[in-house]
Design a protein that fits this description.
Structural class: alpha+beta
Strand order of the largest sheet: 2-1-3-4
Shape: globular
Number of domains: 1
Radius of gyration: 14 Å
Length: 124
């Protein structure tokens, strides 16, 4: 659990790294190199209480998923990954319903996923 001096955002940065983390300098190059991976560029990480972090995540990589699960465990809550357009700039205060509907991954139901699963969850 959190220490009395740590914010949830500080814990997220401690576990996931600095906000704005990139998988690669080029999205196209990363996807060309990893065509089956579920890369979420500019992903937003939420709990139902609010936004915790943003940056690139690859939900096919066990190390990214392990970090998300560690964050959920440390905070004692379910963590959700929401695509870029639904959690950035003027849309950072999503309702619980919006988070649940937009989520492409959650710590209570998922391990690693494929690009095909990611696309299905995005409604493609």
């Amino acid at each position: 659990m959190l220490s009395e001096f740590q914010s949830v955002n500080e814990v997220a940065r401690e576990i996931l790294g600095f906000e704005g983390k990139l998988l690669s300098g080029s999205k196209t190059a990363y996807l060309d190199k990893h065509p089956q991976n579920a890369a979420v560029f500019n992903a937003n990480v939420f709990s139902l209480s609010g936004k915790l972090w943003y940056g690139d995540l690859d939900l096919s990589l066990s190390q990214d998923v392990a970090k998300l699960k560690a964050l959920a465990q440390k905070l004692g809550t379910v963590i959700y990954v929401v695509p870029e357009h639904l959690g950035r700039f003027n849309k950072t205060n999503l309702t619980e319903g919006e988070i649940l509907q937009a989520s492409v991954w959650s710590s209570d139901r998922d391990e690693t996923i494929t690009r095909e699963q990611l696309n299905e969850r995005r409604g493609r």
